[in-house]
């Protein structure tokens, strides 16, 4: 009986070692492949001229950048609105609604950004006024370089 | 619920586990050699797991297959207990060396069954299933090694499929069917992938399931028992034999893991159809066949491709009916044992001989840019992969995004047509060895279209120091010359 007990323990240990090792490897691999490699330098891309920014309406524009999706290199376009904050500094809003990702659209009459999908409403500074969005519109890093407004790839 | 005679029904998980594991009996005196089949099954299951994980990242298409393998090798990393691990490379190593282990274990299992006479009645069908499984396993090996799309993958598979094409009558059609066309290319890769992950597993599962079921039903052959003698089972299957099986399986997995860690998965340079001087060499388990082919070079192609391998396969499949000797003990069947040793010796000899043939030119992968490197150089693409971005699309003469204006589109198409990139660069693509030939975009100078139109007639007349062919040499038509001149003026850095 002692022998049987010992051998049973050995069997259980070996079985656990094999399945546990494979399970650990699988989870490490699955996690490691769930990130995108950052193989490129983040860089500043010109969006528009400072002079293009009007007094009331934000400027609707887009920029493109390259990124690596695993083994795949893709050119991605980002839709943005460029405007000024209360101090007059440039602000770049992503057009992606913070609710479920539909593009928001500027409505000149009400001076709000509206999302057609689920009725989210943001004010001119991106704050949520109404509807389901949980957070203000995302601001992308931007700067003034000479007469240009530049945005950082994201 | 009750059975007709009123007793409680037997069955369920408990009864099944009892029948299959806990109260199962096996013959006494069986050792570790009887554990090879289970070890093979465990390694095969591991291959399934590592294969499924690799499939998360692998693309079976020539334009990304190599890149996706490179990504797995170089970029799939994880941190465990403060150590950075190349988990992708290790996983691919496990799958690569696991494939070799599968063949080794299958061969050892087959030899054990042969030398102990276990293929004899009543286990003839079990043996036939086993031989069929070995065929499927070789199929896994063959279809698997095209997938990395490196030099070895490309040329070894090419040779393999050309051997198939040599078969009488059906050869050419069968080869086209496997290749998806007259030459090895993108359809071949997708086909091999589909075979590797769908068709062959679909074949293996029922064969292996039936094999296992029959093993369970017929039991392990008692050592030395003659055919027809009652088979005594007097030893417990659990835990004694289970421990033997798990020990052999763990040892096999340990060796695979060690090889994966120390040697890693091999990867040569990306497949290049035009590589000269590259001598393909197949995986070691096809080397015997490869060497046999060399041996009969110039002679009848049928002998090494059909007669010898086909003959061996037929003899193996029909062995239980060819060998009618009722004895199982090796000492009482000297002729069968001698034949077996002869075959083993021949295959081993051919394999060793094949290993000693000097390998051709090695093809090394190009340098790779690691995570965190700030400057990016695009991963080199196989020369015959479709253009992957606008620049190379334009260079290849198709309309790409980069060629925005009609002048640019026409100019870049002409650059491709007249092979200007044999010396010049266009969007950084082309041969840099052409001494002094400038990149087209931003070409230095202060010239207009008329100047270029004249210059192109015979560049050496205008600038004697450069070695550029004339319009006549290039067979450049006047219309194309003017279009090129317009484009050159448009890209001149003035």
Explain what you see:
The complex is a heterodimer of chains A (about 150) and B (about 500). Chain A is an alpha+beta fold. Chain A is about 20% helix and about 40% strand. Chain A has one helix and eleven strands, in the order H-E-E-E-E-E-E-E-E-E-E-E. Chain A has one helix at about 1-30, and strands at about 45-50, 60-70, 70-85, 90-95, 105, 110-115, 120-125, 130, 140, 140-145, 150. In chain A, a hairpin with a 5-residue loop joins strand 6 and strand 7. The longest helix of chain A has about 30 residues, at about 1-30. Chain A starts with a helix and ends with a strand. The mean pLDDT of chain A is about 90. Chain B has about 500 residues and is mostly helical. Chain B is about 55% helix and about 5% strand. Chain B has helices spanning about 10-20, 35-55, 65-75, 85-115, 125-145, 150-165, 170-180, 185-220, 235-260, 285-295, 300-320, 335-355, 390-395, 405-415, 450-455, 460, 470-475, 480-490, and strands at about 25, 80, 85, 235, 425, 430, 445, 490-494. In chain B, the strands form four sheets. In chain B, strands 1-4 form a two-stranded antiparallel sheet. In chain B, strands 2-3 form a two-stranded antiparallel ribbon. A two-stranded antiparallel ribbon of chain B has the order 5-6. In chain B, helix 3 (about 65-75) crosses helix 4 (about 85-115), helix 4 runs antiparallel to helix 5 and helix 5 (about 125-145) packs antiparallel against helix 11 (about 300-320). Chain B is elongated. Mean pLDDT of chain B is about 85; it is low at about 370-405. Chains A and B meet through helix 1 of A and helix 2, helix 3, helix 4 and helix 9 of B.
């Amino acid at each position: 009986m002692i022998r049987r007990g010992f051998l049973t323990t050995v069997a259980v240990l070996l079985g656990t070692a094999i399945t546990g090792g494979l399970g650990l490897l699988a989870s490490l691999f699955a996690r490691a492949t769930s990130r995108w490699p950052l193989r490129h330098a983040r860089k500043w891309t010109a969006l528009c001229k400072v002079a293009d920014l009007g007094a009331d309406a934000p400027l609707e524009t887009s920029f493109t950048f390259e990124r690596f999706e695993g083994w795949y290199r893709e050119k991605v376009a980002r839709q943005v609105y460029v405007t000024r904050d209360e101090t007059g500094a440039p602000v770049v809003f992503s057009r992606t609604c913070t609710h479920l990702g539909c593009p928001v659209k500027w409505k000149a009459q009400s001076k709000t950004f509206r999302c057609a999908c689920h009725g989210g409403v943001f004010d001119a500074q991106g704050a949520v006024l109404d509807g389901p969005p949980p957070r203000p519109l995302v601001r992308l890093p931007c700067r003034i370089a000479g007469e240009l407004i530049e945005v950082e790839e994201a | 619920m009750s059975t007709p005679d009123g007793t409680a029904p037997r069955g369920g998980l408990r009864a099944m586990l009892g029948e299959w594991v806990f109260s199962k009996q096996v013959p006494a005196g069986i050792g570790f050699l009887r554990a090879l089949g289970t070890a093979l099954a465990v390694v095969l299951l591991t291959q399934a797991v590592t294969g499924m994980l690799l499939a998360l990242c692998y693309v079976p298409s020539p334009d990304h297959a190599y890149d996706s393998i490179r990504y797995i090798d170089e970029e799939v990393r994880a941190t465990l207990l403060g150590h950075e691990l190349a988990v992708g490379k290790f996983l691919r190593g496990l799958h690569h060396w696991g494939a070799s282990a599968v063949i080794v274990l299958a061969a050892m299992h087959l030899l054990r069954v042969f030398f102990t006479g276990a293929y004899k009645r009543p286990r003839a069908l079990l043996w036939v299933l086993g031989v069929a499984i070995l065929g499927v396993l070789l199929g896994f090996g063959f279809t698997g090694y095209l997938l990395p799309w490196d030099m070895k993958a490309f040329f070894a598979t090419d040779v393999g499929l050309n051997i198939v094409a040599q078969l009488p009558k059906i050869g050419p059609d069968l080869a086209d069917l496997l290749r998806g066309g007259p030459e090895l290319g993108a359809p071949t890769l997708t086909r091999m992938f589909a075979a590797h992950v769908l068709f062959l597993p679909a074949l293996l599962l029922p064969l292996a399931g039936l094999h296992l079921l029959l093993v369970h039903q017929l039991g392990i052959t008692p050592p030395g028992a003659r055919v027809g003698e009652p088979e005594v089972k007097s030893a417990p299957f659990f835990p004694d034999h289970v421990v033997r099986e798990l020990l052999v399986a763990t040892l096999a997995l340990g060796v695979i893991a060690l090889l994966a860690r120390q040697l890693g998965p091999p990867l040569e340079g990306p497949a290049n159809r035009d590589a000269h001087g590259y001598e393909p060499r197949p995986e070691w388990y096809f080397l015997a066949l490869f060497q046999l082919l060399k041996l009969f070079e110039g002679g009848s192609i049928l002998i090494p491709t059909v007669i010898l391998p086909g003959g061996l396969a037929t003899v193996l499949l029909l062995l239980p009916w060819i060998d009618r000797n009722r004895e199982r003990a090796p000492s009482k069947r000297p002729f069968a044992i001698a034949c077996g040793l002869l075959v083993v010796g021949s295959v081993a000899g051919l394999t060793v001989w094949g290993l000693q043939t000097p390998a051709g030119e090695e093809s090394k992968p190009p340098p790779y840019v690691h995570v965190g490197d700030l400057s990016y150089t695009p991963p080199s693409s196989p020369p015959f992969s479709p253009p992957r971005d606008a620049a190379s699309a334009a260079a290849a003469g198709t309309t790409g995004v980069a060629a925005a204006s009609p002048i640019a589109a026409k100019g870049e198409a002409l650059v491709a047509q007249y092979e200007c990139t044999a010396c010049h660069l266009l969007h950084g693509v082309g041969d840099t060895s052409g001494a002094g030939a400038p990149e087209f975009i931003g070409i230095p100078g202060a010239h207009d279209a008329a100047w270029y139109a004249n210059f192109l007639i015979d560049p050496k007349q205008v600038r004697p120091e450069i070695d550029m062919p004339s319009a006549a040499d290039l067979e450049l038509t006047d219309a194309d010359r003017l279009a090129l001149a317009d484009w050159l003026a448009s890209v001149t850095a003035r």
